[in-house]
Amino acid sequence: MNKQKAVILGAGESGTGAAILALKQNFDVFVSDKGMIKENYKKILTNNKISFEENGHSEEHILNADVIIKSPGIPDTAEIINNAKLQNIPVISEIEFAGRYTDAKMICITGSNGKTTTTELTYHILKNAGMHVGLAGNVGNSLALQVAEKNFDVYVVELSSFQLDGMKDFKADIAILLNITPDHLDRYENKFENYIASKFKIIQNQTETDAFIYCDDDDVITSEIAKRLIKAKQFPFSIKKTLKQGAYRKKDKIIIDINTKQFTMENGLLALEGDHNEYNSMAAGITAMLNNISDKQLKTSLSNFTGVEHRLEKYLKIRNVLFINDSKATNVNSVWYALQTVDEKIVLIMGGKDKGNEYGTLKDLVRRKVKAIVALGIDNKPILNAFTDIVPVYDTNSMETAVKTAYHLADEGDTVLLSPACASFDLFKNYEERGRLFKEAVRNL
Question: Is the pTM here over 0.70, yes or no?
């Protein structure tokens, strides 16, 4: 009997992991990347004797596949994907593929903002409680690679809308939906409702024995829930209202009520500051209680978590000017949260590859909190147009210049905040490189 052929499109973290799992499951494996494959991934493929190509897709190799596993970065409208679908070749995500080969419990987290922090906090809590748990998806190693090599009992998986789009039969045992604000609309025909539908795929295939944790203060989420028949048990969280089941704020405490058990913790003891992080802590706390983590262990983990690099990362103080790296803020709503969190006067560095951003929601906060904006990008016109009537805006196109400009504009006691509201691809490989170069430029002042 001939082996089934698995073609993996994209040879990054998810694609390479999918290739290893496909090999272990006895597929004939071929990997194709439209660009250059990074050396570390090329080495993994070579060491495992996996055939691959780079700098282009060869249709004759790809369109005789039994299954195509697509990188989340490749849009569904790509020509190679359309051609595969015309030939009725299933096109799935690495997460979907990995889910077929494990019975592990899946705790899946999505949202427009806060998903990395919540994922890493949830993992931190469960790991410290002694659970055999893996961290996967947008953070950690690919889920497929861990299914192939690690055999964890539980996975905490951060899922972007792009990853959710490629899922068919995959099921989250615990699904967490933090918030939904317009993002990546260029991938969704510029229709917000398409993006909302993508986020709600996190609860597809859930049954009565599963859990759905969501923000009850998010009007987009609650209005969408009202239209749907949801089978999973629901656990909302809120900082605005008292809830019978779920998590809520009461005076200076967070309270989590789950199945007649109650957990209480003072806000001031939480490691993460700000309303948005209180939401993240509530979501992780509900998950912990559903996994029978003790109150003592939960309190310890919620109070000693160190946070995520590039997300509101307090980096250095120079001449009593605090530099905060929030490079992961790639949409307007993330910047709104960041501005809410900082109490001092702000010099804001923002800009990059604009995704059709609407900056209106930031204007009031900018007016109240920001003394100047340093625009960082190849084309800064959208930011100049949005804010020059409110605060001075300085046009720069290198990180070194942006940081030096911001430093000279800041007075003692001010904060220089890198919170771009945009993707990084105009000047940087990714938001991590943007954040690292920010920190390097700050060190060099």
Answer: yes
